[in-house]
Amino acid sequence: MEWHSFVDLDEYEKLVIRMNTPRVVIDNAVCATSTIVKVDSGSKHRILLEAVQVLTHLNLSIKKAYISSDGRWFMDVFHVTDQNGNKLTDESVISYIEQSLGTAQFVRSGGCDGLTALELTGTDRVGLLSEVFAVLADLECNVVEAKLWTHNGRIASLIYVSDINSASPIEDSQKITGIEARLRQIVKGDIEIRSARTSAYTPVPHIDRRLHQMMFTDRDYERKPVLKQNTETPIVSIQNWAERSYSVVNINCEDRTKLLFDVVCTLTDMDYAVFHATMNASGDRAYMEFYIRHSDGTPINSESEMERVRLCLQAAIERRASEGVRLEFCADDRHGLLADVTRTFRENGLNLTRAEISTTPENAALNIFYVTDALGTPADARIIESVRERIGLENLRVKEMPKIHHQKEDRNEAPVGVGGPFLLSSLGSLVKKNLFNLGLIKSYS
C-alpha cells in the first residue's frame, strides 16, 4: 500500500494513525511536588519500556507511576522530578519529552554513533578495568564512552572506542580480532575461561539495557558473592491470580534513580508483558506492583519459574546499587588517561564496582567511579586521599560515601502495596481509584 499525505487517507486510516500515535500531556499544576507526564495510545508490545527509557535518558526521578494496558489501549501516568527533586521547568526538557514520547522514539543513551562497541563479561577482580584500558591504549584505541557494572562476583562492561589516529570506528577486521583476543586473555585470567566473553560490533541503542542483558545471559542472578556486600536485598514476592490469569509481582526496596527502568527492562527482556502496575516512592523507599503475563497471555506456570523471576528482579535492582565511595574525575582528555587513573586505583588496592566514562565535545573527560577495598568493604579514607593526591585533588573529588544498610530480620513480611490474596480481586477498583486521583475520571465509587 502506498501512503501519501494524511489528507489522502480515508477516515478509518486516519483513525488508526491517531490511535497508534501516543498522546502526551505534561502538567505542572495538578501536583505540588512533581510534574505529571501522561501518555496514552493504542497498546503495543514494549511501549511501556520505551516510555520509561525516555524519562530515564534525562535522569529524571519517577516518584509515582500508574500503568494500565489491558485490552487495546495503553495509558501511563508518571510523577517525575529532576535530580534535585524539583518540578520540570526547563522548556527544552519538556519539549524533548513531548516529542520523544509522542513518536515513541527509541532513545539512545549516549552519542555513540560512529564508534566501535566492545563487550566484556567475566569474573570480577581488582585491577581488571585498569588492565583493559592499558591494552586499549597500547592498541591505539581511544575510549570515548564506557560503563562497568559488577554484581555477585561478575562484571559486565560496554566500551565505545574509536581509532586514535582518525577518531573513526575501527574497521580493520584484523585489528578488531587482535583487540578481542587481547581483552579475552585479560578477562578470563586463570579461572572460568569459558565464561569470559568479548565481542566487537556496532553500538547498541541503549547501554544500560544491554548491560542488563549481558549480566542476565551471564546468569549473575544465580551466583553468590564471596563476601556479603554492603547492600540491601530487595524484597520481591510473586503470586498468581488464577481467576484473571495474572501473576502479581510486589517489590519493596530502596528508592533510586532509574529503578523503574531496571525492573521494566528485565520483565520485558524476560518476555513478560505488564498489563497493570503502580509505583510509589516515599522517603527513601519504593513500593511497586506489577500484573504480568507471558507474551502468549498466560501467567507464571511453576514455582521454579517464580523463583527465577524473583532472583532476576533482585539482581536487576542490585546491579546499579551504589557500592563504595563515589569519586568524580574531571580533566582534559588525553591518550592513556584512563589507563593511568585506573592503574593508580589498582596500585592502592581499590576495586572498581561501577564506572561511567564519558568525554565531552570539548575533549574533557568526565568520569564517575565507585570504589571499595579489595574485600568489597568501604575503602580507608587515608587511601582515598593518597590516591587523590597522586591523581590531582582538583581533578578527583569524593562526592558520596557508601550507605550502611541494616537488613530486616523478618524477610517474609508482606511488602507494602496492594498485593495479597484478599486484594487481588480489587484490581478494577484500584485502577479506577488511580484514575480518579489523577483527575481522569469523576468518580471511582
TrEMBL record:
Tagged with keyword Transport: no
Residues in ACT domain copies: 117-198, 326-401
Organism domain of life: Eukaryota
Keyword Repeat (UniProt): yes
Family annotation (InterPro entries): ACR1-12, ACT-like_dom_sf, ACT_dom
Function: Binds amino acids.
Protein name per Swiss-Prot or TrEMBL: ACT domain-containing protein ACR
Organism of provenance: Kalanchoe fedtschenkoi
Record lineage: Eukaryota, Viridiplantae, Streptophyta, Embryophyta, Tracheophyta
